[in-house]
């Protein structure tokens, strides 16, 4: 029987490499894997639905759930997770020394609806009293000019969001003091080229992030894997087939990272890092599946609604193919 041919676009992660090289094959599927940069995949999937399945920004995917008809359905696989306290940068000219100093300031962000800034705004609100509508947001390219939102926004009027000038970049603006801070997924180039001008809000961000996890048990999810709705509706079995394949590919990476005869990654203390991750986050420190992540997803959906990006507060169960909600690692 001929296999179903599907194209998956996803970045070159260790946890998905077995899918890319074909050593893990989803049941019943001949998978063509494109290892594209995440920004390119997001744009092409969100705007043009070019791939049968793709890694997607969790925020962009959540926005798509408010469309009629819904263009995508996700599986509870999370190729990207990231603690984001380290991704809040401040201009040395701003006088910002602690989170509450951000209130009333100009905050740059590449896109208001990006997942990383959604998490950052939510954490600042929950833990430091910096409400999402207490600042002014300036959106645009971080390193290149003229970046637009991938998805059209319809925000309540209390959220002040405006584009930067067509010849401006956020990296340049924060160094010059034209914006007070930056919420981003990537460190701006000026953080390295002008270290006296651009600082982290939390200099010891790892310690802050460890305390955050111990207190909340949240390891923020950045990306999901989404399937084009028509592909799923025509072959509903693909959701579980892809889920199982992603789990197996990740399992192989766990084994690889625990190898002590020789390091598989170019990190001199890789074994110690793995042992530290297990102590802090448990044996399955990067969990897939719905139930292990329900509290993380619910927190994100609350943030998404509070920040004007969701018309109503979605429930985590609404995000995924129902077949995968009870899936577990076999």
What characteristic shape results from the CA principal axes? globular
Structural class: alpha/beta
Number of helices: 11
- Which oligomerization state do the chains in this entry correspond to? single chain
Can you name the CATH architecture of the largest domain? Answer: 3-Layer(aba) Sandwich
- Count of distinct structural domains: 2
CATH topology of the largest domain: D-Maltodextrin-Binding Protein, domain 2
Query: CATH first level of the largest domain: which class?
Result: Alpha Beta
Residue windows where pLDDT falls under 50 for at least 5 positions:
none
Spatial gap, N to C terminus: 26 Å
Largest sheet: 6 strands, mixed
How confident is the prediction overall: mean pLDDT?
96
Write out the CATH superfamily name of the largest domain. Answer: Periplasmic binding protein-like II
What is the count of β-strands?
11
What is the rounded Rg? 20 Å
Q: H/E order of the elements?
A: EHEHEHEEEHEEHEHEHEHHHH
- Strands in their spatial order, largest beta sheet: 8-7-6-9-5-10
Question: Would you spell out the secondary-structure blueprint of this structure?
Answer:
Layout: E1 4-9, H1 17-20, E2 29-34, H2 38-48, E3 53-57, H3 58-64, E4 72-75, E5 88-91, E6 106-109, H4 115-128, E7 136-139, E8 160-163, H5 170-176, E9 181-183, H6 189-193, E10 198-200, H7 205-216, E11 223-228, H8 229-234, H9 238-257, H10 270-281, H11 294-306
Parallel strand pairs: 1-2, 1-3, 6-7, 6-9, 7-8
Antiparallel strand pairs: 3-11, 4-11, 5-9, 5-10
Helix pairs in contact: 4-11
């Amino acid at each position: 029987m001929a296999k179903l041919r599907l194209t998956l676009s996803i970045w070159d992660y260790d946890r998905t490499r077995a899918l890319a090289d074909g050593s893990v094959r989803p049941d019943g599927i001949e998978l063509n894997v494109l290892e594209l940069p995440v920004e390119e995949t997001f744009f092409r999937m969100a705007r043009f639905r070019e791939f049968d399945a793709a890694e997607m920004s969790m925020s962009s995917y959540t926005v798509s759930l408010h469309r009629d008809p819904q263009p995508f359905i996700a599986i509870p696989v999370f190729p990207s997770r990231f603690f984001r306290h380290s991704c809040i940068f401040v201009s040395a000219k701003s006088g910002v020394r602690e989170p509450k100093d951000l209130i009333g300031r100009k905050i740059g962000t590449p896109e208001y609806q990006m997942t990383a800034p959604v998490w950052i705004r939510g954490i600042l609100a929950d833990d430091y009293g910096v409400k999402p509508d207490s600042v002014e947001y300036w959106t645009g390219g971080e390193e290149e000019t003229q970046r637009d939102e991938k998805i059209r926004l319809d925000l309540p009027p209390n959220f002040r969001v405006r584009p930067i000038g067509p010849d401006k970049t956020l990296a340049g603006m924060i160094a010059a003091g034209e914006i007070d801070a930056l919420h981003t997924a990537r460190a701006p180039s000026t953080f390295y080229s002008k270290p006296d001008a651009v600082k982290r809000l939390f200099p010891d961000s790892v310690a802050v992030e460890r305390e955050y996890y111990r207190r909340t048990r949240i390891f923020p999810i950045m990306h999901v894997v989404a399937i084009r709705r028509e592909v799923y509706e025509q072959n509903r079995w693909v959701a579980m087939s892809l889920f199982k394949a992603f789990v197996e590919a990740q399992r192989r990476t766990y084994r690889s990272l625990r190898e002590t005869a020789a390091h598989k990654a170019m990190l001199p203390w890789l074994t110690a890092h793995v042992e530290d991750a297990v102590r802090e986050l448990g044996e399955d420190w990067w969990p897939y599946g719905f139930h292990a992540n329900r509290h993380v997803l619910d927190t994100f959906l609350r943030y998404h609604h509070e920040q004007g990006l969701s018309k109503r507060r979605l429930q985590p169960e609404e995000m995924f193919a129902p077949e995968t909600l009870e899936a577990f690692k076999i």
